[in-house]
Amino acid sequence: MNRLHDLRAPDTAARAYHWRDDAACFGRAALFLPRKDYGPEYLASTLKAKRICENCPVRKACLDEAMATERADGEGGRAGVRGGLTPRERTARYSRQRRGIPEPATLLDQYLRRTEALDDGHVRWTVSTNNIAYLGRQYTPMQLAWALATRREPEGLLRTGCGLAGCVAAEHLTDAAMRRARSHTKRYAA
Ligand code: SF4
Ligand SMILES: [Zn+2]
After folding, report:
1. Closest CA to 107 of 150, 161, 73, 70
2. CA distances from 36 to 31, 32, 42, 43, 173 (A)
3. Which atom of ligand 1 lies nearest, measured to the CA of 57?
4. pLDDT digits (tens, 9 = 90+) for 128-170
5. Nearest CA to ligand 1 atom 8
6. Where are the domains of the chain?
7. Could you tell me the sign of the dihedral formed by the alpha carbons of 39, 42, 48, 52, in that order?
């Protein structure tokens, strides 16, 4: 696995400063390099990584390096969150740069901007707006979290299954298909 996030120059008295010395992700490669690239666990770890990048003092240098060094790699050769962007977001960024198109906010940015991570993995929606328009589609906060975490449309109503009213942590949401599967499992486990 690419352990780029754990790289740091050896501590010798004479060595020069490198921006990686101040990387906020140092030692957290597992969070920044999730095994899967979809699903609720992926979303949860990616959001945590992005929040760390948001406050990282060397974010610009990190993103500049990623964009400069990964240019020749295909999307499959890009790994992990770097400079606040996922591999897929960096691929889209290359494509826009090539075509001279300005950067729009991603769906994930829309979610991050309006949420706050709480303890125990809960996520709070922090703004009064409950309708997010993105690329010609409207999302409720729960639909936004669901769209980021899964690649399928929800069946029926989305609900928070963690007991915290209004929680929009993707891994705490259920749709009718998931609730049906769970009650089926319970019935047969009883
Ligand atoms: S911007 Fe993110 S990936 Fe880059 S050094 Fe900072 S925390 Fe690590
Ligand atoms: Zn929750």
Report:
1. 150
2. 11, 11, 6, 10, 19
3. 6
4. 999 998 878 899 999 999 988 887 889 999 999 899 999 999 8
5. 25
6. 1-104, 106-190
7. negative
